[in-house]
Design goal:
Length: about 280
């Protein structure tokens, strides 16, 4: 992990009214330019943590830092923070409200005080980036779930944030929608964006993430590179299944179907596994 993280969360606790602690001393760091995946069972606190990162919620204990500076909750600080840290909700209908696609994406830049021309250019660029420019004038409620998610991402991208935080971005998407989302995230990563996602898609997190954190009962109980975290023997106790490619690899290795190599690491893609088979 980076010594000077872009986002640093230290011992954050939060309780919704009359409920048990949703976050209970949660701590994690997000290096600049990294791809970070948060995994864990439902109710672990991932969504609540994201609401803190975007300053929608304020911790009742602990603190958050952006580029080493502590979060403050004045209107000016929160406004500036949300231009740097964009949040995409799990349900895009929570985020989309305008009468058509272009107006929805335009709202953020206009709210930043940009001119109509500059805001419009940002909206067009964001819609182009997610492949939705041709749908600019369509009513939002006519879109598919995958299209809505892309528009929600565009609405955040139009603010030109440094960090994109996404809650379950792959949920309820069909295969073409998943491929489109993966391509968008790869593009953003190449542009230097920092990406933080909560996901139940362990196979995708295995192949995609640079860093994985496991949340359970409001606490961060493990964190590190995917090979270190997602291949653990106690994965079931941590609330997730090991990646399928890892199970296949282990079985093939036990059956002697792979060339011997005590120092070899578990492959992170089908391509890597196929390459190993060709060495046999």
């Amino acid at each position: 992990m980076a010594c000077n993280p872009l986002i640093d969360i230290k011992d954050v606790s939060f309780r919704y009214r009359y409920d048990k602690l949703a976050l209970d001393g949660a701590s994690l760091s997000v290096p600049a330019g990294s791809r970070v995946a948060l995994v864990g069972p439902n109710g672990a606190g991932k969504s609540t943590l994201f609401l803190h990162i975007n300053a929608i919620l304020r911790p009742q204990a602990g603190a958050l830092f952006y580029q080493g500076q502590p979060y403050r909750y004045s209107r000016d600080f929160v406004s500036a923070l949300r231009q740097k840290v964009g949040l995409v909700f799990q349900d895009p209908d929570t985020q989309l409200f305008a009468s058509n696609v272009f107006e929805d994406v335009l709202f953020g830049p206009m709210n930043m005080g940009l001119s109509s021309r500059d805001a419009g250019q940002r909206a067009e660029a964001a819609l182009t980036a997610v492949g939705m420019l041709e749908h600019s004038r369509e009513p939002v409620h006519f879109l598919s779930q995958g299209q809505k998610k892309r528009v929600a991402i565009a609405g955040v991208l139009a603010m030109e944030p440094e960090v994109l935080v996404m809650d379950e971005p792959t949920a309820a998407l069909d295969y073409p929608g998943l491929i489109s989302l993966h391509e968008i995230l790869d593009m953003l990563h190449k542009q230097g964006k920092t990406l933080v996602v909560a996901t139940h898609d362990i196979d995708w997190a295995w192949s995609w993430a640079d860093l994985v954190y496991v949340l359970a009962q409001g606490q961060v109980i493990a964190g590190g590179p995917p090979r270190e975290i997602l291949s653990r023997d106690d994965h079931a106790a941590l609330g997730f299944a090991r990646p399928i490619i890892g199970e296949i690899y282990a079985c093939m290795n036990q059956q002697g179907l792979l060339p011997p190599d005590a120092n070899r690491q578990m492959p992170r893609s089908v391509e890597e596994l196929t390459a190993l088979l060709k060495q046999k």
